[in-house]
Write a structure and sequence with these properties.
Blueprint lengths: L7 H5 L5 H18 L6 H14 L13 H18 L6 E6 L5 E4 L2 E4 L9 E5 L3 H13 L4 E4 L5 E6 L1 H7 L5 E6 H17 L9 H9 L2 H6 L22 H4 L18
Parallel strand pairs: 1-7
Antiparallel strand pairs: 2-3, 4-7, 5-6
Helix pairs in contact: 2-4, 2-5, 3-4
Length: about 270
């Protein structure tokens, strides 16, 4: 993967470390291994054998991953861990876009979120595409022939056969995050589920292009009635990635400016 994530947008914005990039690369390869049904990890073999014993299957024939809930569970956990490590340990890339329902406090390190609020108003980090949906999106893209790795005669995966540009332009942006309340977060999950359902056909295939179009048009935020402050907020004076946020999200910014009541005196 000599030039993976080293071109175009990510060359201009070298946000991710080499280790984080490697985790995304490995997650993608894991998707292909599982989808092609030739993963041979010890854990996958143990799962297969356990399944065979419970189902009284006497051969080593493997079910497709979509039909094998044990292996599917392990695969999702493994891919999810790698994706999380790619996305700054699940913290993502803050855009500075913060819900109007979030309050702030002043600290010696700068503006921070007010967490001393009721449960439903607790601030939460919300990925542009909620983390729980990212794995299925990558899987469906692979099934749709959007990307693929070359393989050798032993089914060992090599570099990209095709689709590297698609991957670089699509998956890293899923890790951009806004700040919403806990209650808003729940609403967003329901709205995303509706979008997935809307574009799922009778045999369970999802039109991911249409799903992505709605999500990057911020349809789930619009439907959930979530809007942002008039300007991006640098929490604790850390850099934000507002410039990478789609215009559709920026259009949800309202005239209300973020107000930070001074509580700095409490630190002395």
């Amino acid at each position: 993967m000599p030039n993976f994530m080293k071109r175009g947008l990510w060359a201009e914005n070298p946000i991710f470390t080499d280790l984080e990039i490697e985790n995304l690369f490995n997650a993608l390869q894991q998707v292909q291994l599982e989808e092609e049904n030739y993963t041979t990890s010890d854990k996958a073999i143990r799962v297969r054998n356990n399944r065979n014993r419970l189902l009284k299957i006497t051969t080593n024939e493997r079910l497709p991953i979509t039909e094998d809930r044990w292996r599917n569970s392990i695969a999702k956990r493994r891919i999810g861990n790698q994706l999380g490590d790619f996305g700054k340990s699940r913290q993502g890339l803050e855009t500075g876009l913060i819900s109007l329902n979030i309050n702030f406090i002043d600290t010696p390190k700068g503006t921070d979120l007010d967490r001393e609020v009721s449960k439903n108003l607790k601030p939460e980090r919300e990925h542009f595409i909620p983390f729980m949906f990212q794995i299925e999106m990558m899987r469906q893209d692979y099934r749709d022939g959007r990307w693929r790795f070359e393989t050798d005669s032993d089914n060992k995966l090599l570099d990209f056969e095709f689709g590297q540009t698609f991957v670089e332009n699509t998956y890293p942006k899923m890790h951009l995050v806004n700040i919403t309340t806990k209650e808003e977060n729940k609403k967003l999950i329901k709205e995303v589920e509706k979008i997935f359902s809307k574009y799922t056909n009778d045999i369970g295939e999802v039109d991911m292009d249409r799903v992505r179009e709605d999500l990057y048009n911020a349809e789930h935020y619009k439907n959930a009635g979530i809007f942002f402050y008039s300007e991006p907020v640098n929490l604790l004076n850390k850099e934000n990635y507002f410039k990478l946020a789609p215009e559709s999200f920026k259009k949800l910014m309202r005239k209300t400016k973020p107000r930070v009541p001074s509580k700095f005196k409490q630190w002395f």
